[in-house]
Amino acid sequence: MSKKKAPTNNTIALNKKAKHEYHIEERFEAGLSLLGWEVKSLRAGKAQLVDAYVLLKGGEAWLLGAHITPLSTASTHVIADPTRTRKLLLHAKEIAKIIGKVNQAGHTCIPLALYWKNNKVKCEIALAKGKQKHDKRAAEKEKDWNRQKQRILREVNN
């Protein structure tokens, strides 16, 4: 019998602000072109997507503003740039679709998460439309109401 490994959390970094700031319309999975020291840092979980965004230029997609903190032990011989521009690996049809939507008014492309998939780093990107202030308030009220419902149900069941 072969031993099965326990399922581990494959998520490296999440962009929690994205769901608050944008209406997510469509998601894509993109590969990420990385250097060796970046992979080591990602294994240690040292990544942030807070101010990151996707730039579409010359028929290619690029991840800008993602911060991968270099490990002091892994990058001694390399001058590490934590916020360097990284290439996103997508199919040409996917890039064309994203470019078509981004050229429409109000649409943008944002990274949602970095995660491991079969020992490769993947970036989940999304086509999104910015939320207005009243949309953010409505979403906050909905979240609060759902929390209240859960509390009430817990009290009734106990």
TrEMBL record:
Composition-biased stretches (Basic and acidic residues): 137-158
Keywords linked to the UniProt accession: Cytoplasm, RNA-binding
Gene Ontology molecular function terms on file: RNA binding
GO CC term, one of those recorded: cytosol
CDD domains: SmpB
SUPFAM superfamilies named among the record's database cross-references: Small protein B (SmpB)
Protein name: SsrA-binding protein
Source taxonomy: Bacteria, Pseudomonadati, Pseudomonadota, Gammaproteobacteria, Pseudomonadales
